[in-house]
Amino acid sequence: VTQNPRYLITVTGKKLTVTCSQNMNHEYMSWYRQDPGMGLKLIYYSVGAGITDKGEVPNGYNVSRSTTEDFPLRLELAAPSQTSVYFCASIDFGPEAFFGQGTGLTVV
Amino acid sequence: DQQVKQNSPSLSVQEGRISILNCDYTNSMFDYFLWYKKYPAEGPTFLISISSIKDKNEDGRFTVFLNKSAKHLSLHIVPSQPGDSAVYFCAARLNTGNQFYFGTGTSLTVIP
Q: Does residue B49 sit at the A interface (CB-CB below 8 Å)?
């Protein structure tokens, strides 16, 4: 699972995209955020191309799944509260998920 | 509403001794429980899992125990090695699909 960029600093109100791709032909992909001292919180997930659904903390984010391989995460209006580390994950038949290396986002 | 809880933020153990990491959950709809290991600046990596219909699963030095009546699981690492030093996350999967809920993590330090 490959995420880009690894680190990103942006300003409030900017639009940005974090990309995620996998070459394992997994149907299920998901995005998590991890705040300091906290566990991973599910933002959005997808069970296949063209299908997405909200997780625990979807507000302020958007996703799309046009292909099995790619699952980008979009922030339409970046806010300081979205400063976090973001992880993309994909799952085959499960139950274990394969995670990307993470994207550290700072919104100033 | 934290459905998966790890109440110990950190744990220090001597090399060669047993490490026991604990996790509690509240939702009876979880069908799988997993442990992930995370090093700094890396994504979590899968360590071991257990189905809700079992009470024990073992893989080398790692054993996970599940007590459904207490809604509690634990990860035992024997013997502990310095390379085991990392943050360990407990996770649970909802039986409705591949949605995972994670605990807040326990930072394990194995002292040589």
A: yes
